[in-house]
Amino acid sequence: MMAKKTALLGMLVALAFVLSYIETLIPINLGIPGAKLGLANLVVMVALYTLGTKEAFALSMVRILLTGLTFSSMAAMLYSFAGGLLSFAVMYLAKRSKLFSAAGVSVLGGISHNAGQIFVAMWVLDTATLIYYLPVLAITGIASGTVIGLLAVMVIRRVSGMINRWD
Predict the structure, then answer these.
(1) 166 Cβ partners below 8 Å, 6+ apart?
(2) What residue ranges in the chain does DSSP mark as E strands?
(3) Which of 24-38, 77-91, 148-162 is predicted most confidently?
(4) Most Cβ neighbours (<10 Å): which of 67, 129, 155, 164?
């Protein structure tokens, strides 16, 4: 049982890593630095709903570390960890509250990921003026969270039965 779960987590880390790489290849320039679709969060959402909190958290942190070491700088990795930690905490609490669908949890995750990055940028750059950028990033978080959330709902429906058979 443990070997199957470990193998599955390894595959999900690899999938999240590949989706992060694919996202670097997509030439989306909305004039908003840092705005991305967040494809790897699809894998985290599926893990959160099918495997559990600990596994999804580990997946998220390992993916951020691997992606940061491979595709970005230490500063970018700091921002990613801040966004990822806040996002995961908010998604966990939203899921646990049972007030939100998986799509709603994803939207909250997208917004909080961007908020976490802004707050760290404000701290690193020692300026509060970046807070004005938050509404723009909230809109991109809502948009990307909605897309990823709707995709996650479809994937969760299809894979939850397979994963539950392994238990």
Answers:
(1) 1, 4, 5, 8
(2) none
(3) 77-91
(4) 67
Of the chain, the end-to-end C-alpha distance in Å amounts to 7
How buried is residue 132: exposed, middle or buried, by Cβ count under 10 Å (0-12/13-18/19+)? Answer: exposed
Q: Of 71, 76, 164, which is closest to residue 120 (Cα–Cα)?
A: 76
Residue 11 CB: number of other CB atoms within 10 A? 11
pLDDT at 123 over 80: yes
pLDDT in tens, 124-142: 999 999 898 889 889 999 9
Provide the pLDDT for residue 133. Answer: 87
Span 54-77, pLDDT tens digits? 999 999 999 999 998 998 888 888
φ and ψ at residue 10, rounded to 5 degrees: -60, -45
Identify which of 103, 85, 82 has the alpha carbon closest to the alpha carbon of residue 94.
103
Helices (H) and strands (E) in the chain, counts: 6, 0
* Cα(31)–Cα(35) distance, integer angstroms: 9
